[in-house]
Protein: GTP-binding protein
Organism: Cohnella herbarum
Amino acid sequence: MDRVIPVYVLTGFLGSGKTTLLNRILDDAKSRGLKPAILLNEVGDVNVEGQLIEKDIPMSELLGGCICCTSRGDLGLELVQLAQENRPDVIWIESTGVAQPLEIMDGVTEASLYAKLELKNVITVVDGRHLLDKLRIGSGKTFKLMKEQIRAANVLVLNKTDLVHSDDLEELRNALEDWNPHAVIVQTTRSEVAPEVLYADHGAIDLNTDADSVHHEHCEDEHCDLDHDYSHDHDHTRHVHDHASPHDHVNVVTYFFKGGVDSVRFEAFLKQLPDNVYRAKGIVAFQDTASLFLFQYAYREVDFLRITPQKAVNNVAVFIGEGFSQSDLVAQLERLDTLIAP
Ligand SMILES: Nc1nc2c(ncn2[C@@H]2O[C@H](COP(=O)(O)OP(=O)(O)OP(=O)(O)O)[C@@H](O)[C@H]2O)c(=O)[nH]1
């Protein structure tokens, strides 16, 4: 008889450290001879880090929308397919940073009607410094979403503690315990969690937290699923989405580079991004080196990693935020990009 495949959900706001954790999980699975499968969801049209995941790991991608709303039906289908075609030992779902975790959990439980799947743990990664700033303001859509993601978890990874003063850690922990007294809390830098904590049985997951009210608020919204305004330019080098409700505050710009960029100018450009661009990532070629780089921008921190992809990858950048000028951003990128192609 078929085994039941355990499913784990990784959630947390944009740039909190989910992919960093997923990479650790995949390394651990490999060292133990476990066969994982992953389902990655991105609000952008390109799965930047997905391009770098080892070819032999079964992976399903849901792009250009959030599984909690536009792609929710697909989540169930993809999960059933992943399970039936690959018979993995475990499935990990990494949601977008703007996902409502309850909707994902509903999607997984729905899929378990059609395949032998069982939702085990919901792990929310929290960017300690970002949350601290939001706590001090105490309101706003991002703050509300962070809270919902925290409430839905049974494991909380309080990450980026290297960027938080030790005096502030207690305030963060108190907030987490207050919003979710049942979850296990682990403090980390670079999402370094013992895998045993992630796989342990932490008891039932509560599908009826307060955030349920938000779920209904969203799903009754007349724009949900339907009113996404997509506009492509003709040469397909850029692609702009205006996402309507429930993520009506989220906008995404995906830009395909035509050539290489100047590394110094590109870094300076990232560092002056407006505060309402929360997240950027991509793969760039620099004019001054033959290598490719994965760049990351999350809450004002910039990171570059030299990469050697196993397969052909796109040189592309994705920017996620709210209320920023998409045309200004694209114009800046075009100026950088045309440096080598005048
Ligand atoms: N300083 C610091 N940076 C971190 C830590 N954990 C992750 N990062 C960096 O934060 C950036 C975002 O990390 P990711 O793991 O890609 O975050 P994510 O949650 O997958 O982001 P999304 O895909 O936008 O949802 C990367 O540049 C990481 O290297 C940490 O503990 N401290």
Remarks:
- The pocket of guanosine-5'-triphosphate is lined by residues 12, 14-20, 97, 125, 159-160, 162-163, 189-191, 279, 296, 298, 301, 303 (CB under 6 Å).
- The radius of gyration is 20 Å.
- The chain has two domains: 5-219, 229-337.
- Residues 210-246 have pLDDT under 50 and may be disordered.
